[in-house]
Design a protein that fits this description.
Elements: E1 8-13, E2 17-22, E3 29-34, E4 44-50, E5 53-62, E6 65-73, H1 76-91, E7 95-100, H2 106-122, E8 127-130, H3 137-144, E9 149-152, E10 168-171, H4 179-188, E11 191-194, H5 201-212, E12 221-225, H6 244-248, E13 253-257, E14 262-267, E15 274-281, E16 295-296, E17 301-302
Parallel strand pairs: 1-7, 3-6, 7-8, 8-9, 9-10, 10-11, 11-12
Antiparallel strand pairs: 1-2, 2-3, 4-5, 5-6, 12-15, 13-14, 14-15, 16-17
InterPro entries: F-box_Sdz-33 (IPR012885)
Pfam families: FBA_2 (PF07735)
Protein name: Sdz-33 F-box domain-containing protein
């Protein structure tokens, strides 16, 4: 019977492929390895039926709960895919995220593409995360065009001129991320999230000016960790636009008027260096609210 509450699969391809059910409860990790390595594993051995196949498992348990288990196949990638298909076809659980931890060799490239092709048939919305190990340019571009959301921990430059089939981009190591990447990205994506960038106050003011001019109509959300001591410094020269949302906010926030009937709600929910901006639309005529929230002074924010 399919589960009554929503579940997903967090899958990873590496030296040992990995699957974990994600949901409201805790589920153990399932690793996939070659049958030739089974004798190197300690633990309890059992055979389980997966579809029409009898699959050997080794598992560990603590306090009566299974902590980790490993399934063994002649071909670990084919076994990995068969288990993913089993979850989809028999339990209606699809892959919701895929981690890639590999290299730029031809064998890993084929494995990655086979897995992504299978996942693309299983799930509508997917996330991919790449590790520090760089992939080849061909594989990197293949990933970008295959997923709606992409996370990167590398220092490689994402080429935004590519027509990436994505709604959002998240870059966890954005030391290379510059103003031109932000401006081009904001034209294409609804959400952009960047950590550890070198963006300055001047950069963020340029971005805000272009947003107010209506150059980023698709944009809904931006969060960027900047080099500013106080990310509100980028907003001080813009006319504030008090709204009910800012008046009721329990965290430091300000709003500025945008194009047409839009306004930007800017917060510091993740610290003073983090520039968080959510684009909203004002219904009807703009109203003035007596805000008890964050009021920007000439030099520093003040209550």
């Amino acid at each position: 019977m399919p589960p009554e509450f929503p579940l997903g699969l967090a899958a990873a391809i590496s030296d040992k492929h990995q699957i974990r059910i994600i949901g409201e409860c805790y589920y153990p990790y399932m690793h996939i390895d070659s049958i030739t390595k089974i004798d190197s594993y300690d633990g309890i051995r059992r055979n389980m039926k997966i579809g029409e196949d009898i699959v050997p498992f080794v598992f560990y348990h603590e306090d009566g709960y299974i902590d980790e288990l490993t399934a063994f196949f002649d071909d670990k990638t084919e076994g990995f895919l068969s288990i993913l298909e089993y979850f989809k076809n028999h339990l209606n659980i699809s892959v919701s995220s895929l981690d890639i931890h590999g290299d730029n060799g031809p064998e890993f490239s084929k494995t990655m593409r086979d897995v992504i092709h299978s996942c693309s048939q299983m799930a509508v919305s997917k996330t991919v995360e790449e590790s520090e190990q760089p992939l080849s340019e061909q594989d990197f571009n293949f990933i970008l065009k295959s997923f709606e959301t992409f996370y990167s921990e590398t220092e490689e430059k994402l080429e935004f001129h590519l027509e990436i089939d994505s709604d959002s981009i998240t870059v966890r190591n954005g030391s290379w991320f510059q103003l031109d990447h932000l401006l081009v990205g904001c034209q294409k994506y609804e959400e952009i999230h960047v950590t550890e960038s070198k963006l300055t106050e001047s950069d963020m003011k340029t971005f805000l000016t272009q947003w107010k001019d209506g150059k980023f109509p698709k944009l809904k959300n931006v969060s960027v960790k900047t080099v500013m001591t106080d990310s509100f410094d980028a907003v001080r020269d813009f006319e504030q636009y008090p709204t009910e949302s800012t008046a009721r906010s329990r965290i430091p926030c300000v709003s500025i008027k945008g194009y047409e009937n839009t306004y930007a709600m800017i917060t510091q929910r993740a610290g003073p260096k983090m520039f968080n901006m959510e684009v909203r639309r004002q219904n009807g005529r703009a109203r003035g609210f007596r805000t008890t929230g964050y009021r920007l002074g000439n030099n520093r924010g003040e209550l």
